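REQUEST ID: PR-0412
SUBMITTED BY: lab tech R.K.
PRIORITY: routine
TASK: structure prediction, single protein chain
INPUT:
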Amino acid sequence: MGVKWRWWLAGLLLLLLGGIFGYWIWQARLERSQDPPIRAAAARYGVEPALVKAVVWRESRFHPGCHGRAGEIGLMQLQEEAAREWAEAEHIEGFEHEHCFDPATNTLAGTWFLRKLLKRYPLADDPLPYALADYNAGRGNVLKWNKGAAATNSQAFIAQIGFPGTRLYVQSVMQRYEHYRPTFK
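STATUS: complete
OUTPUT:
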């Protein structure tokens, strides 16, 4: 009986390890699945592809059919107003918000919007935390948080972010961005 138990346990362990390995392979493939539209959007709008990929990772985990609670859709979780602003700026006729379920459209619109936000904070030592907080919580909230030293010092700004979820969002995107930078150019 002891030998059967060991074989059963060994088989179960192999099955478990195989499942973990299979999940790891699937996750790695999913993470690379949106690289072509991310690279194209980043090149078109002059934003580092690693940053776009980090936002996509945080917003949708690379699932283009993702829906948000406030009406955001697609890889970069775009709200209708931001998507329409992009479509108008690019002179796209007949644009509908549902077009943002297409990964190429979504990453183009989201990257355009991200570039716009990065340009909003030219006096900051690093505009990235401000832009990410704006992307997540809106400009009105960023204007509340960037008082005093936080107006130009990005570390002070991060510490002053009033929503714990937004602070975590900014920190997680920045960490993932640093993770992608060496390998995703």
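NOTES: The first helix runs from residue 2 to 32.
REVIEWED BY: pending
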